[in-house]
Amino acid sequence: MTLTPQRRLLPMAGNTHGNRSAVTCHLRCGDACFQEVPNTTETSYFRDVAASALSRRTLLGASAAAATTALVATTPAAASPGRGAGARAAARTSALAFSPIPPVPASVDDVSVPAGYRWDAILRWGDPIFAKAPEFDQDNQSAAAQAQQFGYNCDYLDIIVTDRKGTRAQLVTNHEYTNENIMFPPGTDPAEVVRIAWAAHGMSVVELRRRHAGDVWKYDRTGRTNRRITLETPMTFDGPAAGSTLLQTAEDPRGMRVRGTMNNCAGGTTPWGTVLSGEENFNQYFKAGGTDPREKRYGLSANGDSRNWRSVDSRWDAVSNPNEPNRFGWIVEVDPSDPRSTPVKHTAMGRFKHEGAHVIVNGDGRVVAYMGDDERFDYVYRFVSRDTYRAGSSKKDLAHNKTLLSAGDLSVARFTGDGLEDGVSDGAGEWIPLTVDGESVVPGFTTEEVLVFTRLAADVVQPTKMDRPEDVEPNFVNGFVYVACTNNSDRGKVGKEGATEPNPRNLNKDGHVVEMMPTRGDHTADTFAWNLILICGGPETAGTYFGGWTGPVSPISCPDNVTFDSEGNLWVSTDGQPGTLKLSDGLFKVPVAGPERGRVQQFLGVPRDAETCGPVIHDRDGSVFVAVQHPGEDGTWGAHTSHFPDFVPAGTTPRRGQFAGPRPSVVQVTRR
């Protein structure tokens, strides 16, 4: 095994949009856009069939009903104790007034923020998060040290305020993947590189402290609940597929336990205070036969494991251990308040390339989780719990609520356009069931097969192929649901499905955002109305649409994660603007109601080669948080393209704990 095999072959080199990093394509998703599209199904439901859609009159009626009853049918206060919770610890009015920043060139190696604001890196890759953990030393890394330090490439993020004064909190984040090219000096032992990478994956839970609400947070390495979750952390399966022969291996003959979690992308914080983490591009870590249709549908192949982890642990050899990949691609639930708790992989929520999962409490007490499968031409999913949420805070209530995602029903979305005569992309939709009362309703599939091979089961019921549906998140103010469709450069190519009303552009390089309105505000209803609130790109680009707003907007491309402030404004983080617009990725505010609906305003830009992940908006506290992922991705050891956030001057020796290169970090933006 060589130290950096991924540098020898970059299939996406010369095939990305503009100057999009081929390294990012290779390391994060295994050159997914260079591979055959896993979804090769063809059905009539992927076309716009206006004749079979609801009439325009019916659609408008459904939208109005959703708008007027959404807040009655949901319980926003209970539904969002984590993301945005810091807002309740401070003043009642928003403290985030700002003038949009101008577009930031992709070459800028800094965090760009509005006038009157500052940014601080509050946690960096390698920071020790335990009292006895070693300080980061770029030249003397080890797996044992990394398991006690903040992991690499932080993605999903939440800042959960834990006291009434707003002076204590927990930071919870995912660590999606590693870039060995810029992490390790030449000559590092290859086997130890692999073990360090395992320790750098997973999640971190770190306590924060500050003197006053509104201050910059500082992390506390003595925090009682501090925790690292890695690829060696024991986890359990629950739900209908737990114990299935499809999950059994020689290491785990009962199919009930698994070591670790990986390629964790987005996530969600539940109403009961746990955190959900989505396992996404797991396929790239395995060597597989690649001929079985079930493997091909999940992107498993004979040449997709350039990291060569199987040389250190044979479980990454899916030829010898064909069920091992089935043990990844799940939603993982972690209780950040209990560092001794065992994370759970919920099989009832299905297995695919989970971007994340976001939960809302419905009016009848059941909880509903929305999920996207981040792949070209894949689907939007919904999980509805069998049991109901308990609003109490006792240990008994928490124990009950932690079982809510263990039993329920899974469905997949079908979007139908009503025609473009009205000048907008909109229509009606329905949720097509995959399980009912916890049992399969897909012809030819057992319940276990529906949940382990969810993509194939969904293909059978003919949902709508979407343009990389990533984050799918409910807005607790208006009760609507927003879907970030990042892009799909294959749409409309020869042999591939062309533009449809919910995915209106061929060769879609800029992406769009879907707004879904549950019928009568009921998140368990079988139907919904929808529209595209954003069709992204530069304002001068043909086909762009900004929610009806016709004034100036900030250019925006490749929406990735979404979140909301206390007023219900949509905030969108991007992943791909360096390639499409030659601008840095950033964070954007978008009102979804009122006269400024659709007005895109850029708040932040991230450093060179980085993407913006995990936005958290504590607007009443005057704070915004983002995870800055893969800064300096295109560099190599000793020839770094970014020096964020330590900015150690060239030719000087880093101080203790610093790094003369890029470090993925969590950033807080506050007023000066």
Fold and architecture overview:
The protein is of the alpha+beta class and 672 residues long. 12% of the residues lie in helices and 27% in strands. The protein is built from eleven helices and 33 strands. The strands form seven sheets. Strands 13, 14, 16, 17, 18, 22, 23, 24, 25 and 26 form a ten-stranded antiparallel sheet that branches. Strand 17 (408-417) and strand 18 (426-433) form a beta hairpin. The radius of gyration is 23 Å and the shape is globular. Mean pLDDT is 90; it is low at 1-12 and 44-92.
Q: What portion of the residues fall into strands of 2 or more residues? A: 25-35%
Q: What structural class should be given to the helix and strand makeup?
A: alpha+beta
Largest sheet: 10 strands, antiparallel
The backbone outline, from C-alpha atoms, is globular
The count of strands amounts to 33
Q: Percent helix among the residues?
A: 10-25%
Count of helices?
11
Low-confidence stretches: 1-12, 44-92
Overall pLDDT score? 90
What is the terminal-to-terminal distance?
49 Å
Radius of gyration: 23 Å
Oligomer: single chain
SSE topology sketch:
Layout: H1 22-29, H2 56-73, H3 76-79, E1 117-124, H4 143-146, E2 154-161, E3 168-175, H5 180-183, H6 190-200, E4 202-209, E5 218-220, E6 227-229, E7 234-238, E8 257-259, E9 264-269, E10 275-279, H7 293-297, E11 331-334, E12 344-346, E13 358-361, E14 366-372, E15 376-378, E16 380-388, H8 395-401, E17 408-417, E18 426-433, E19 435-436, E20 439-440, H9 447-452, H10 454-461, E21 466-467, E22 469-474, E23 481-485, E24 512-518, E25 527-535, E26 545-546, E27 559-564, E28 570-574, H11 577-580, E29 586-590, E30 601-605, E31 611-618, E32 623-629, E33 665-671
Parallel strand pairs: 7-12
Antiparallel strand pairs: 1-33, 2-3, 3-4, 4-5, 4-6, 7-8, 9-10, 10-11, 11-12, 13-14, 14-16, 15-21, 16-17, 17-18, 18-25, 19-20, 22-23, 23-24, 24-25, 25-26, 27-28, 28-29, 29-30, 31-32, 32-33
